């Protein structure tokens, strides 16, 4: 297959480029390097220093014997995106080129607007480009489990659900209730894609993925091939953050009561899942929604796990619940249907506990680098403050 990855410089984009290239697919990466700059904007950086894209593509060529084409380009620029798609005429396009942090979207009005403009525009540009070049191109779009929120009913893998109102029945898009501007931007993306599927018969996989954790995927065989790893209060996600807190001797920080429950997946298993979805596209003209999670835990359970694993590695670890900066349920029902990936052969290889050990071991050599960022760990971005 020939695959374009939009957002190829990111936490998932880079290892996916390596995975697909290693499997013999032709890979074309596109990224405007926004995340690198936006992480520095909040005073932080990746735990592992990142070579420039061109340097790590050269390292991939040397160490893995793969060729990746790369463009520094902004997907908000329709003409540029269109030119790349027209030039390469891919079989599939992976869309990761979105602002992916919930706290970043909640900083103030500018960050809220940036999130909406970037995320919605990029998807609309992609839709229009595909219509012009070839409407049979498969779009693999990264959505999020957070589009659904934490409802008191099961989260199905279904674009539609049947409802009865005043005795009359009809199908409506599966209900969504997000909990940040970022997560809402993904909801609107999903509805936009559903509509594009109806109007132009586009072939779409919309992935509802839970928080991803980990430092390793099969192709990351050398420091030069590492993917970025964020841990600050804006860009870090919970498991990765706890591991950095553990290495730095800081208390682990479940927000509020800590009963917030999510479906998690390791970096390696996310790569396996994404590859399967690309290699087994939906039928032409189908909109397929996939729940991409493996294990379900509360953030308090994860803190206990990190404490146990970290202490077995000789670290001293405390858990200190902090005031929840977010507006979210801290105790709730959570049950997610996951049928599609197993039906395609998905067999998760990693359990969170063993990956926590790997993450901590990978981070320990970078402890002195991490010490420089201690001040960006505790949550400062408060949902309720809403600065303008
Ligand atoms: N949390 C803590 N302590 C921390 C950090 C987070 O208790 O130190 C809690 C949050 O309050 C939240 C949960 O952990 O209840 C998850 O937060 P997160 O920061 O790990 O992840 P989230 O903001 O939801 O976003 C991340 C990615 C996003 C992706 C999403 C999947 O940044 O791109 O879409 O995970 S999901 O969570 O399923 O929506």
What does this structure look like?
The strands form three sheets. A seven-stranded parallel sheet has the order 3-2-1-4-5-8-11, sandwiched between helices. A three-stranded mixed sheet has the order 9-10-12. It has a two-stranded antiparallel ribbon with strand order 6-7. The mean pLDDT is 98. It has one domain (2-376): Rossmann fold (3-Layer(aba) Sandwich), CATH 3.40.50. Helices cover 38% and strands 16% of the residues. It has 388 residues and is α/β, with parallel strands linked by helices. The termini are far apart. β9, α8 and β10 (261-266) form a beta-alpha-beta unit. The structure holds sulfoquinovose-uridine-C1,5'-diphosphate (USQ). Sulfoquinovose-uridine-C1,5'-diphosphate binds at residues 100-102, 144-146, 183, 210-211, 237-238, 241, 253-255, 260, 262, 299, 326, 328. This is UDP-sulfoquinovose synthase.
Features:
388 residues, alpha/beta, Rossmann fold, seven-stranded parallel β-sheet, three-stranded mixed β-sheet, binds sulfoquinovose-uridine-C1,5'-diphosphate, Epimerase_deHydtase, UDP-sulfoquinovose_synthase, UDP-sulfoquinovose synthase
């Amino acid at each position: 297959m020939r695959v374009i990855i939009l957002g190829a410089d990111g936490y998932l984009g880079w290892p996916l480029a390596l995975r697909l290239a290693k499997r013999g697919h032709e890979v074309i990466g596109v990224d405007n390097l926004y995340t690198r700059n936006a992480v520095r904007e909040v005073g932080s950086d990746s735990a592992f220093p990142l070579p420039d894209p061109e340097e790590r593509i050269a390292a991939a060529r040397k160490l893995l014997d793969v060729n990746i084409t790369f463009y520094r380009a902004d997907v908000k620029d329709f003409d540029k995106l269109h030119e790349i798609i027209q030039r390469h005429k891919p079989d599939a396009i992976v869309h990761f080129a979105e602002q992916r942090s919930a706290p970043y979207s909640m900083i103030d009005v500018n960050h809220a607007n940036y999130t909406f403009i970037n995320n919605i525009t990029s998807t609309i540009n992609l839709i229009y480009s595909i219509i012009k070049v070839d409407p049979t191109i498969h779009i693999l779009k990264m959505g999020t489990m957070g589009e659904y929120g934490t409802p008191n009913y099961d989260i199905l893998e279904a674009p539609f659900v049947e409802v009865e109102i005043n005795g009359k029945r009809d199908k409506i898009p599966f209900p969504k209730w997000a909990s940040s501007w970022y997560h809402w931007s993904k909801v609107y993306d999903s509805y936009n894609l559903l509509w594009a599927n109806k109007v132009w018969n586009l072939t779409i996989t919309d992935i509802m993925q839970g928080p991803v954790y980990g430092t390793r995927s099969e192709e990351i065989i050398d420091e030069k091939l590492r993917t970025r790893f964020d841990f600050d209060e804006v860009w870090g996600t919970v498991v990765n953050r706890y591991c950095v807190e553990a290495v730095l001797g800081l208390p682990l920080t479940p927000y509020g009561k800590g009963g917030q429950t999510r479906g998690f997946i390791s970096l390696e298993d996310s790569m396996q899942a994404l590859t399967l979805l690309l290699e087994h596209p939906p039928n032409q003209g189908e909109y397929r929604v996939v729940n991409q999670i493996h294990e379900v835990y509360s953030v308090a359970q994860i803190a206990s796990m990190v404490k146990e694993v970290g202490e077995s590695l000789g670290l001293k670890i405390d858990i200190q619940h902090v005031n929840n900066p977010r507006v979210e349920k801290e105790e709730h029902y959570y049950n997610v249907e996951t049928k599609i990936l197993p039906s395609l052969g998905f067999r998760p290889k990693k359990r969170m506990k063993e990956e926590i050990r790997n993450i901590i071991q990978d981070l320990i050599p970078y402890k002195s680098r991490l010490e420089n960022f201690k001040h960006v760990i505790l949550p400062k971005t408060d949902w309720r403050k809403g600065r303008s």
